TrEMBL record:
Keyword Transport in annotation: yes
Keyword Transmembrane: yes
TM ranges: 39-58, 64-84, 104-124, 144-163, 175-194, 206-224, 245-267, 287-311, 332-354, 360-385, 412-433, 439-461
This protein's name: Cytosine permease
Pfam families, per the entry: Transp_cyt_pur (PF02133)
Keywords, comma-separated and alphabetical: Membrane, Transmembrane, Transmembrane helix, Transport
Membrane topology category: Multi-pass membrane protein
Family stated for the protein in its record: Belongs to the purine-cytosine permease (2.A.39) family.
Compartments (UniProt record): Membrane
Any one annotated GO CC term: plasma membrane
One of the record's GO molecular function terms: transmembrane transporter activity
Main location as per UniProt: membrane
PANTHER family referenced in this protein's UniProt entry, alphabetically: PURINE-CYTOSINE PERMEASE FCY2-RELATED (PTHR31806)
Length: 483
């Protein structure tokens, strides 16, 4: 799948703490194969948060059978967009969110997209904190807050070492995780804990079906703001289709597997059981003590994701600050921003508490889905249809450059796209849009936001001076440097 051009660049030049943050990765430092991205996105879901996603889906009101169908379709849908974002990384050699400046402007990207991305990291990492604290409590009896701090300390070290070590860790974890998750799956399906009639489909109800669909699609789409951060060190001559498939298939397959496992584990546990306890109960039915092994393995997977969230949150904070005053991307600033993530997440998770995990996680994922749908449409339309992957990299870092401080096209398309979604939204227990209410609580906002935001941006982009921009791309000479 297009690996031939990258063979000479497989050796990682940096084994220690990563040097780069939001800056462009020079061509001489590009290395690796698209398959290395596969390990990250396969292991990315095989953890307590992925399992918890499945647990939450079953609490949305559909039967187990219809929950399974909605989960598969939602995962295939959300991963499709996320994988196309991954394909942008090798082409540009930039973190995902810095790539938003050509659409939203130097300041516009900071105040809209990046703030939402920071909320994304904090929201997901708070969920990770709750689950890691509960896992440590179940395993050792220590208080949840202390369990989180210990887990976060390990994740912080991984995040500080950055790109190379995150890739390496996920490569090591892949096969042990496959084996243990397979055994947990056997325990959940055949351990005898499922109630009678659980596989009866029952009547089809569109409202809970769409709640599950949007929630799962949103979980997969939640990777989009930082997915290409993990492909940006690949060579630019790696084909788009290669990066796409090495992201799409591993992420979709492992996501569907662990989400369905979570739903089945939840079906076999008493109502209201938290995801970690439900997992332990299911695994222990196979043989005594296996529950502890299962929790330990999925906790290790969670540490990897906590590291990815801390790393991404750090890049986002640096990006926001850099939009207002230039930041030298040093190790010290990465340490500082990761520390800020650690403290803020710890405080929020203490306020929420494990008892309210399902409610918190469900609403965080759904609200973030709404915020990112218009962004993902605009970003992908710009990359694949308007500019076709050709950007002037130095201008992305120039506040007074051709991309401007405020990209009216991106911002206007975003605001209109989001506004058009509001009447179709359903946020459980908080808000039901007027159209969704008339449809009996059916959430179809995703199918409104994508075409509206993407279509408007494409229309607005017709007034861009692309000929001048392409000439500047040629003058910059980064594409020629490949050959």
């Amino acid at each position: 799948m297009g690996h031939g051009t990258t063979q000479a660049h497989d050796s990682a030049p940096l084994a220690g703490i990563e040097q780069h943050s939001i800056d462009w990765v020079p061509l001489e430092e590009r290395h690796g194969k698209p398959s290395s991205v596969g390990a990250i996105w396969f292991v990315g879901s095989l953890n307590l948060t992925g399992l918890a996603t499945g647990v939450v889906t079953l609490s949305m009101g559909a039967s187990l059978v219809w929950t399974v169908v909605a989960t598969v379709l939602g995962s295939l849908f959300g991963t499709f967009f996320m994988a196309f974002h991954s394909a942008q990384g090798p082409q540009l050699g930039l973190p995902q969110l810095v790539q938003s400046r050509p659409q939203f402007g130097y300041l516009g990207a900071a105040l809209t997209v990046w703030v939402f991305a920071l909320v994304n990291y904090i929201g997901f990492n708070t969920s990770d904190a709750l689950l890691s604290g509960q896992a440590m409590n179940l395993l050792t009896g220590i208080p949840n807050w202390l369990g989180y701090l210990l887990a976060a300390a390990v994740a912080t070290v991984i995040a500080l070492y950055g790109y190379e070590w995150i890739h390496r860790l996920n490569r090591w974890l892949t096969w042990p995780f496959v084996v243990v998750t397979a055994v947990i799956t056997v325990a959940a399906l055949f351990g005898g804990g499922l109630p009678r009639g659980v596989w009866d489909a029952g009547p089809f109800e569109l409202a809970p079906f769409m709640l599950v669909f949007v929630f799962v699609a949103g979980f997969q789409l939640g990777w989009a703001p930082y997915v290409s951060d993990y492909s940006r060190y690949l060579r630019p001559d790696v084909p788009v289709r290669s990066t796409f498939w090495w992201t799409y298939l591993p992420s979709a397959i492992s996501g569907i597997w662990v989400f369905l496992l979570g739903a089945v584990v939840s079906a076999g546990a008493p109502e209201g059981t938290d995801p970690v306890t439900a997992l332990k109960l299911a695994a222990d039915r196979l043989f005594g003590g296996f529950g502890t092994v299962a929790v330990v393995v999925l906790l290790v997977g969670l540490l990897s994701i906590m590291a990815i969230n801390q790393y991404g949150g750090s890049l986002t904070m640096i990006s926001i600050v850099d939009s207002f005053r230039p930041v030298k991307p040093t190790r010290a600033i990465r340490v500082t921003t990761i520390g800020i993530m650690l403290v803020s997440v710890g405080a929020i998770s203490t306020l929420v508490g494990i008892d309210r995990f399902n409610w918190f996680f469900a609403n965080v994922v759904v609200v973030l889905t709404y915020l990112f749908i218009p962004w993902t449409a605009i970003n992908l339309v710009d990359f694949f249809f308007v500019r076709r992957g050709q950007y002037v990299v130095k201008e992305i870092f120039n506040p007074d450059g051709i991309y401007g401080r405020w990209g009216w096209r991106g911002n206007l398309a975003y605001v209109i796209g989001l506004a058009c979604m509001v009447p179709f939204m359903v946020v459980t227990g908080l808000f039901v849009g007027p159209v969704a209410e008339r449809l009996g609580g059916v959430d179809c906002s995703v199918f409104v936001g994508l075409p509206v935001a993407g279509g408007l941006y494409w229309a607005f982009a017709r007034s861009l001076d692309l000929a001048t921009e392409r000439r500047m791309v040629q003058e910059e000479g980064l594409l020629e440097a490949l050959h």
